């Protein structure tokens, strides 16, 4: 059974599509990549602790597609990024250090507890 990002998409990464699809100013998570199949999409995962829509706009021009999900707060966004990191680490297309905690927080990774 393959892991799932638990995100909507993929969508073309452009300002117009982000504004049309990502409606809320909310913390959230995202994955960027080139959509070939569900198992070969991801090139980068990340999060926004404040505004997923504006964060995604910073990536226009760097990738072809995005997936996203909203989070209720920065802690939930951090925990989901950690879970996605651990689910997909070790794939050939994913090399990134463990996600950093939001500033001024003592949140723990739900997987490795660091």
Outline:
It is built from three helices and four strands, in the order E-H-E-E-H-E-H.
What does this 3D model show about the protein?
The model has no long low-confidence stretch (mean pLDDT 87). This protein has three helices and four strands; from the N terminus they run E-H-E-E-H-E-H. By secondary structure, it is an alpha+beta fold. 25% of the residues lie in helices and 21% in strands. The longest helix is centred in the last third of the chain and has 15 residues, at 74-88.
SSE order and pairing:
Elements: E1 8-12, H1 15-21, E2 28-33, E3 42-48, H2 52-57, E4 65-70, H3 74-88
Antiparallel strand pairs: 1-4, 2-3, 2-4
| Tally of contiguous helical segments | 3
The main pleated sheet reads as:
4 strands, antiparallel
Helix fraction?
A: 10-25%
Oligomer state of the chains in this structure: single chain
Strand order of the largest sheet: 1-4-2-3
Structural features:
3 helices, single chain, alpha+beta, GIY-YIG endonuclease, four-stranded antiparallel beta sheet
């Amino acid at each position: 059974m393959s892991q799932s990002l638990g995100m909507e998409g993929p969508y073309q990464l452009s300002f117009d599509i982000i504004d049309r699809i990502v409606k809320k100013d909310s913390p959230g998570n995202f994955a960027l990549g080139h959509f070939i199949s569900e198992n070969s999409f991801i090139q980068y995962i990340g999060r926004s602790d404040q505004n997923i829509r504006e964060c995604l706009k910073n990536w226009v021009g760097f990738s072809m597609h995005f997936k996203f999900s909203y989070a209720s707060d920065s802690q939930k966004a951090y925990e989901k990024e950690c879970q996605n990191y651990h689910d997909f680490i070790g794939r050939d297309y994913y090399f990134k250090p463990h996600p950093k905690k939001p500033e001024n927080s003592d949140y723990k990774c739900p997987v490795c507890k660091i």
